[in-house]
């Protein structure tokens, strides 16, 4: 059922900036996300305006008296805490997680450290720098393994390494994006993604989405620009497995201090049905192929109503709850 905003609702939301584009490697996807969000909010009568931080100074947000911000930026300078800190300084409420959770969630290595400290299941890993013995990485993690740029998203800088002599090239690819490289145990099994909405004890997981990509390759192209990837939502899992994954995802979300909304990627190992959490996206995609809107639709929430719901959750986080 569609939600109709009253004149009072619209007035409360005020003048809204939808931030998209930006300077990260995910600029192209951010433009798709932000354009969709902007059109959705405008269709609901919200006084929403496009704002690209790569082309305009953030000081203009304050000068033009925006009341709140919907962050549709992905990757560096938008999802990593730097923008969130600037908005805190400007005093403009924004969607999604605060400075710390955004920064931690952007860094796959730090995310793993915190998850492991909180008993969250995540694949075994190694951090590769200039002094790392690559043969030892292979011995510890086994083959195949996955090599990632820990501060990138949208499958940028990722390689599946099946032979030891491929590892060096995979590391060099990831180093185009980050000085440190994450090597991760490969989990053979089914791939899922679980959106989460809310903050603190009220945060809840949406329906689980199973992703079935061509030849198991859920890469940049198959994520955003083809219709070959299949999505099953709600995922065909029994009730017990569904509940266990959703509770673990909510635990992982709270452990990082996430707020507003996020999406957590999960693998279910075929051999023993154990699941592993890979990473969190604190500013998930909102394109026509994106997963958060898909999960919301499975619950009966339209794309437009989801955008309004997220916008309503915009807030300042620093000093919240203090006198």
From TrEMBL:
Which HAMAP family does its entry note?
Answer: Dala_Dala_lig
Q: Which UniProt keywords apply?
A: ATP-binding, Cell shape, Cell wall biogenesis/degradation, Cytoplasm, Ligase, Nucleotide-binding, Peptidoglycan synthesis
Tell me, what does this protein do in biology?
Cell wall formation.
How is this protein named in the record? Answer: D-alanine--D-alanine ligase
One Pfam assignment: Dala_Dala_lig_C
Q: What species does this protein belong to?
A: Massilia norwichensis
Q: Which cofactor does it need?
A: Mn(2+); Mg(2+)
- Molecular function GO labels: ligase activity
EC assignment: the record states 6.3.2.4
**PROSITE patterns from the UniProt entry:** ATP_GRASP (PS50975), DALA_DALA_LIGASE_1 (PS00843), DALA_DALA_LIGASE_2 (PS00844)
Chemical reaction(s) catalysed: 2 D-alanine + ATP = D-alanyl-D-alanine + ADP + phosphate + H(+)
Similarity-based family:
Belongs to the D-alanine--D-alanine ligase family.
């Amino acid at each position: 059922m569609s939600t109709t905003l009253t004149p009072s609702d619209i007035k409360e939301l005020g003048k809204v900036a939808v931030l998209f584009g930006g300077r990260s490697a995910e600029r192209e996807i951010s433009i798709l996300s932000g354009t969709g969000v902007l059109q959705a909010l405008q269709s609901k009568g919200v006084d929403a305006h496009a704002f690209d931080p790569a082309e305009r100074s953030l000081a203009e947000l304050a000068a033009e008296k925006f009341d709140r911000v919907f962050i549709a930026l992905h990757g560096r300078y938008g999802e990593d805490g730097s923008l969130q800190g600037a908005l805190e300084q400007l005093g403009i409420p924004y969607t999604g997680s605060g400075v710390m959770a955004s920064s931690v969630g952007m860094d796959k290595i730090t995310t793993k450290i915190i998850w492991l400290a909180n008993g969250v299941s995540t694949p075994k890993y190694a951090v590769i720098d200039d002094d790392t013995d690559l043969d030892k990485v292979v011995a510890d993690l086994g083959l195949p393994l996955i090599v990632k740029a820990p501060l990138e998203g949208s499958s940028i800088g990722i390689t599946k390494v099946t032979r030891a002599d491929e590892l060096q090239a995979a590391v060099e690819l990831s180093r185009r994006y980050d000085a440190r490289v994450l090597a991760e145990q490969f989990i053979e099994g089914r791939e899922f993604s679980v959106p989460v909405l809310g903050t603190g004890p009220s945060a809840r997981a949406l329906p689980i989405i199973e992703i079935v990509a061509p030849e198991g390759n859920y890469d940049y192209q198959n994520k955003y620009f083809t219709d070959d990837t299949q999505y099953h939502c709600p995922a065909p899992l029994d009730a017990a497995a569904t509940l266990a994954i959703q509770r673990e995802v909510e635990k992982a979300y709270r452990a990082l201090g996430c707020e507003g909304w996020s999406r957590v990627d999960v693998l279910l190992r075929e051999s023993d049905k154990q699941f592993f959490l890979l990473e969190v996206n604190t500013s998930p995609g909102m394109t026509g192929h994106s997963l958060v809107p898909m999960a919301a639709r499975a619950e009966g929430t339209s794309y437009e109503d989801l955008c309004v719901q997220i916008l309503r959750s915009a807030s300042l986080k620093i000093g919240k709850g203090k006198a």
